[in-house]
Amino acid sequence: MGKLLDSIDSPKDLKVLSLEELNRLADEIRQLLISFCRRHGGHLGSNLATIEPIIALHYVFDMPHDHLIFDVSHQAYTHKILTGRRRFYTDPESQKDLSGFTSPKESPYDDFMLGHTGTSIGLACGMAAQRDATGGKANIIALIGDGSLSSGPAFEGLDWAAEQGGNLIIVVNDNEMSIAENHGGLYKSLAALRASGGRSSDNPFRALGLDYRYVEEGNRIEDLIKAFRQVKDTDHPVVVHIHTRKGLGLGQGSQGQIGSTSMAQSDGQTAHMTSLPDLPAEGPVEANHWQDGLDSLNRLPNSRKTYGRMAMQALEARFSQEPGLTVISPATPLSNGIDPDFRQRAGNHYRDVGIAESHAIAYAAGIAKAGGTPVVATSATFFQRAYDQIEQEMALNGSAVTLLVFSTGVAKTDATHSGTADMVMMRGIPGLTCLAPTSGAEFLDMLAWATGPARQPVVIRVPGERTLATERAGKPIAPVKSDSTTAGQPWDRYRILQQGRTVALLALGDALPLGRDLADSLKASLGLKPTLVDPHRYDRLDEQTLDALASTHSLVATLEDGQLDGGWGQAVAAYYGPSRVRTLAFGAAKEFKDRVPQAAMLERYGMTVPAMTRAISDALADQASWI
Amino acid sequence: MGKLLDSIDSPKDLKVLSLEELNRLADEIRQLLISFCRRHGGHLGSNLATIEPIIALHYVFDMPHDHLIFDVSHQAYTHKILTGRRRFYTDPESQKDLSGFTSPKESPYDDFMLGHTGTSIGLACGMAAQRDATGGKANIIALIGDGSLSSGPAFEGLDWAAEQGGNLIIVVNDNEMSIAENHGGLYKSLAALRASGGRSSDNPFRALGLDYRYVEEGNRIEDLIKAFRQVKDTDHPVVVHIHTRKGLGLGQGSQGQIGSTSMAQSDGQTAHMTSLPDLPAEGPVEANHWQDGLDSLNRLPNSRKTYGRMAMQALEARFSQEPGLTVISPATPLSNGIDPDFRQRAGNHYRDVGIAESHAIAYAAGIAKAGGTPVVATSATFFQRAYDQIEQEMALNGSAVTLLVFSTGVAKTDATHSGTADMVMMRGIPGLTCLAPTSGAEFLDMLAWATGPARQPVVIRVPGERTLATERAGKPIAPVKSDSTTAGQPWDRYRILQQGRTVALLALGDALPLGRDLADSLKASLGLKPTLVDPHRYDRLDEQTLDALASTHSLVATLEDGQLDGGWGQAVAAYYGPSRVRTLAFGAAKEFKDRVPQAAMLERYGMTVPAMTRAISDALADQASWI
Per the record's keyword annotation, is Magnesium included, yes or no (chains A, B) (predicted)? Predict the structure, then answer.
C-alpha cells in the first residue's frame, strides 16, 4: 500500500512524522481498511471512525509502557496495523490468522482478549490500582465506544474510577450510534454535550465525579493530539469525549450519507446503515457492526438469519391482536434475522434496549408480570451477561419470558463468542424449560407454545446449520409437524425416530442430523440398526423413555452440539449410573477455542461419524468380553 | 402493640387517618420493628429509615392497582405490616413463616420475589410498558436504596426509563450508606444533591434524561405526601430522591449516634455501625445490613465468618511485602469475616467496590494483568452477577484472580440466596481451577497456592458448617497439612482417606464428613469397608484414581453439597459410563427452595446416612442379581 504505512512497524515510527504525514498515514490506513473489509468483511464503520484517534493516542502516549485498553475491540484495527500487525491486513493469506479482537497472544500491545462490552474501564481501574500500589508512572487509557456505555459494567467502572482517583484516561469514542442505534437517556445527554461543545449541564460523567474534556472534531489529528497531551500524566481520572464520524471515508454513493456528520438519531433507519457500494450481500448492515465482505456474495442466509426471520414473521402476524407481545433485542438484531423493515413495522412490539442484557431480562420479567409476552433474542454468548437475572427475575419468579438463543454449537467462532456453553448454563438453572427444536416447523411450534399457553420461563435453542441443511435439501429428519403440542407440558417425551436394538442414539437439537448419519454408519459397518431418538428438550430427562430403552438396549449414546461437562449427556449417564446400561457421551470438551475450524474440533472431540462408530463398536466389544 | 396499628389490615385503612395519626402509626411500627429485630434479627437500619416513606406511598397511591416494586426488599417490613402481614411481626411464632423478601406467594401487594439488587427499575419499566400497551392507568413505582444504585442493572434500568417515557416513579431512598459504606463517584453527587437541597448541577438522574425531585426530610410524612401527590399520575418518568435517616429511632446509648443526621461518610467506621444496646452478639453490624437478634447470643461464629477471618489473617500477614495483594468485596464484607478493624488496617489492600459484582471481577482482572494478586470474596449467590466477567475477563484471559465462594451448600436459605448452584456454575466455565478444601488448614494451603505460585484463575469454595463442626470437635477428617502443594498443579490427585473394597465413596468438600458417616454406616450395617476419597477439586476428574478404583470397586458413589444436575457427580458417572462400574450420585435436586430446613431437604434428596446406606445396599443387591 502507501509508502508511509510501509515504514510503520511499531508506534515509535509514528513519533517522527509531521502532522501532514500523520494525516497521509490516516488516509492510507483508511484505504487499507476499506479494501480489507471489502474482501473479508469486518467491523468497518467503527474502525473507520477511530483511525485518527488511535494514531493520535499512539503519537502522544508510549505504549506498551502506557496501556491502551480497548473495550469490545471493534475499534482496534488501526491499533493492530500500527503495532506490527500490518501484514494481516495487507496480505490476504494472513487474514485467517488474525483475531478479530485484541489478543495478548498476538502482541504485547494488547493487554486483554475482549469481545463483550463495557469492561474496559473496570480493567483499566485495576491496572491503575496496581500501578499505584507499586509506584509506577504509566498512563492507563480505556477506549470505549458510545454504544458500550449503556452496559452495566461500564457504569460500574465509571462510578468506581472517580473514587479510586489517580491517573486514568477514559476516551469515549462517540460516533453517535451503537450497533443498530443507541438507546437510553444517556444518549440524549451525549447529544446535548455534542450540541453544546461539551458545555451542557446534564453531564453524565461529571455527575459520576469525573473530570471531563470534549473534542468536537474527533477525526482531526491535531485536535486530538492537543487534547491527549493535556491529559497525559494526569493525576486524576478524566473522560475525553471525542466526537467521531462513523464510516468516515465511505463517501457519497453508499447508502445513508455515510461520512456526513448530519446523521442524527432522528434520521431514521436507513441513515444508520452502511454498506460498501459494490457489496449488496443480502442488504445493508448496521454501520457500527459487521460489514459482509466479497466472500459472502451469493451465500444463502445462515441459520441464525433464516430461523430468526421465520420467528419474527410468526410473531408479527399476532401483533395486532396481542398488545403485549414484545420482541426485545439487547443490540445486534440484524445478525439474528431481526431486519430493519420488521423493526419499523413492529413499533413498540420491538424494543432494542441497547447493550444492556441484564436490563433486557429484568424488563422482560416486568412485562410478563403485567400480562405481556416478551421474547428476548440474542446470541448464546451474550445471555451470559444476564445469568443472574435469568436465574432470579425470570426463573425464580416464574416469569413468562421466552429466550431465543442464537449462534450456538461447535463452530469456528472467536474465543470470546463461543456457542458451546449455553446449554450447560441454561440447564443448570432451576425452573427453565429448555427446548432444542430439530426443524423449522418444530421451532415455530415451540415458539407458539412458549408465547401462548405456557406462561412460564422457556428457553429455545434456535436450530443451526445442520438442521437448515437437511431442510434445504428437502430431507428433514424430524416430522414436520410436532404432535406433542396438545399436552399440557409438551416436549416432555422423547420422540423415537427409528426403533432398533442394542444401541440407542439420543441426538439433541442440531446434533440430530449427525445422529442419523451415525445410525446409518452403524448399520453399514456393524450390521446393527440402532434406535434413534430426538430428545428435543435438555433441562430434564424423559425417564419413562429412558427406562423403556433400558430393557432392549445395552448401550445408550448421547450426542449434543455443546459442552459435555455439565451438559445433558452427563445427566443421562448419571441416570443410568446404577443400572446395567452403558453410556457414551459425545460432545465438546470444556476448553476455550479461538477460530478453530469446525471439522478440526469435531475431530478432536471424537464427534466425527467414523470416530463415534469406532467408539460404539469398541464399547460393545468390551461389554461382550465380560458379560 | 399500639391501638392504631391493630386497625390497619390493608392500605385502605390508612387513608382515613389524620396526619397526627399517621405519625403515631409510624411510631408504633418503629417500636414493633425494634422489638421484632431484637428477637429475631433483621435488616433493622434500612427498615427504620423507610417507615414514613412507605406509609406515605400507601397513603397517596392505590396499591395493588398501582404497583410498588421494591429493590432488594430490605426496606419492605413496613410494607408487609401495612398489607395484612402484621401478625408475622407481632406474633413470635409466626416469624418463621415470613419471607425476608417480598413474595407474591405471601401477598397480592408483592409483585416479585427479589433478593439481589438493582433490578427494580428494569422490572418497573417492563410493567409500565405493558400498562401502556394495554391502555392502563396504574402508577408504577420502583423503590430503590442508594446502596443498590451502584449496580449495573440499576443504571441500565435508569438509562432505559428515560427513553421509554410514560408514567414511572423511581423513589431513591437515600440513607447515605450501602451495606458497609457507599462507594463510587455517584455518591459524591448524591451528597452534593443533599447538601444543595437537590439543586447541585452534577445530577446523575437528570444526566440520564430523567425528571427529578428532592425531599430533604425523607422521614417527615407531610413532606413525603406532598411530593408523592405531585408526581402521582405523572406522564413521564420521574426520580423522587428522598433523604432518610438510617436506623431512625435507635436513639442515644447505642454505638455510633444512630438516629442523628450528622453521620457523614467521613465519620469513620464506627459511625457506620449500629447494634441494639443490649445485643452484643459478636460485635456491631453494619447499619443497613443484618442486625443479629437475641437468638444469636452466645452463638459461635459460623463457618463463613470463621474461615473468612482465617483467610484475611493469612493474607494480612503478607500485605507489607506484597503491594498488589488486594481483597475485593462487592459489599457484604462482614458476613464473610472481613471485619471493620481488618478493613481499616488493610488500607488499599482492601477494596469495597460497593454492589457492583461485574466490576469487581473486571477490576480484579486488571489488577492481575498488571502483576497484582486480587482475591474477590462474596456469597455464592452474588457471583452469579459476574458470570460473564468470570468467563471472559477472568477465565478466558487466564487472569490470576482468586474467588472465595462463601455461603454454599444445602441450607435453610431464602430462595433468592441459594448455596447449591455455585459449583455447577463455576465448573461449567473452562479455565477455572475449582477447589473444595476439607479443613481450615487445607483452605489456607489452597489460598496460599492460588495467591502465590498459581498465577491462574482459581475458585475456592470456603468450607462449611460440617467441616467446622469436625474441627471444633477436634476430629478433622482430612490430614491437617496437605502434602500436595509441592507439585506444580496441586490438588490434581484425589486423596484416599480409607482404602476399602467394592464400594468407593467420593465425598466432595463439605460433604466429606457426611461421607465418613456413610462409610461408618456401611461398615456397621453391611459389614463392608468402603474406600473413602476426598476429591477436593471439582472442575476436572482425577482419571488416574478413577481408573484405579475401577479395578477393585463395582460401585462408586459421589456426594456433593450442591446441585446434582450439571454437577461434578454427573461427570464422574459419565466417566464410568462405558465401563462396568456402577455409579450413584448424591446431591441436591435442581429446584428453588425457600427457607426449607436443612434436615428436610437432605431427607428429600436422599442425602441422609440411612437413605444413602439403603440406596447403596439396593444397588449392590441389584448388581449381584444379574452378574
Answer: yes
